[in-house]
Design goal:
seven-stranded mixed β-sheet; 9 helices; about 45% helix; about 240 residues; Glycerol-3-phosphate (1)-acyltransferase; alpha/beta
Length: about 240
């Protein structure tokens, strides 16, 4: 039965995503001279998130800690990565940012095309020139007062536990003098387990925005200390 219900949820989600693509495409064309940071097209993903989550009777999503999110500030956002559900779940923040996402996701019809139109940042794993380009683009967005969201584990967790963090996002935050905003996602690994397409039942997913961590006082060589502080905060919340 779960497989049958999952098929219908996937079909509904695909249809909603196709609609999102055409809305984003039309707005991209109409607003090209005016929406340089793609804020209006990015905001279309908020209703997409509501619709996709609303389709799924198995998910109960709770967002907390929004008092820690100042929408007038620019952050390097750090989130743990648990499942494919993370994209829809994080749009529940209703906040402006640019994702750093693996290149293969940009090739997925409709959702990947939306990512390209909204000017999110493409990561080619293992390609050094691509990594340099990522940080060039991320720096550019931060200087334009647009937050950038990283999954520093680099891949989805297979068991919900927190993986090791890569250094790049923390070097960037120190260099650009931007605060780090940690976000803890809990329960999403149960919603769509890694390697599966079937939705589990009775899943509660929580997204908690933690207090920002300022980069003031961190020198260029102290990125590992910042990384460890951020990881410890997220892990403490994940285990609580």
């Amino acid at each position: 039965m779960k497989a049958i219900i999952s098929v219908f949820i996937w079909i509904g989600s695909i249809l909603i995503t196709i609609l999102l693509f055409f809305v984003v495409l039309v707005l991209t064309i109409l607003l090209f001279p005016f929406d340089k940071n793609k804020k209006i097209t990015h905001a279309q993903c908020f209703w997409w998130s509501d619709a996709v989550i609303g389709l799924n009777p198995f998910w109960k999503i709770k967002v907390s800690g929004l008092e820690n999110l100042d929408r007038k500030k620019t952050y390097v956002i750090i989130a743990n990565h648990q499942s494919m559900a993370d994209i829809a779940v994080l749009y529940q923040l209703k906040s402006q940012f640019k994702w750093v996402a693996k290149a293969s996701l940009f090739n997925v019809p409709f959702i990947g095309w939306c990512l390209s139109l909204i000017k999110h940042i493409k990561l080619n794993r293992g390609d050094f020139s691509s990594i340099k380009e990522i940080y060039y683009q991320a720096s550019n967005w931060l200087r334009r007062d647009m937050s950038v969201l990283f999954f520093p584990e680099g891949t989805r967790s297979s068991d919900g536990r927190l993986g090791e963090f890569q250094n790049g996002a923390f070097k960037l935050a120190i260099r650009e003098k931007k605060p780090v905003l940690p976000i803890c996602i809990k329960g999403a690994s149960d919603a769509i387990p890694k390697g599966s397409w079937i939705f589990k039942t009775n899943v509660a997913v929580t997204v908690k925005v933690l207090p920002q961590i300022t980069t003031e006082g961190f020198g260029p060589g102290e990125f590992s200390s910042l990384r460890d502080i951020v990881r410890a905060r997220i892990n403490e919340t994940l285990l609580s």
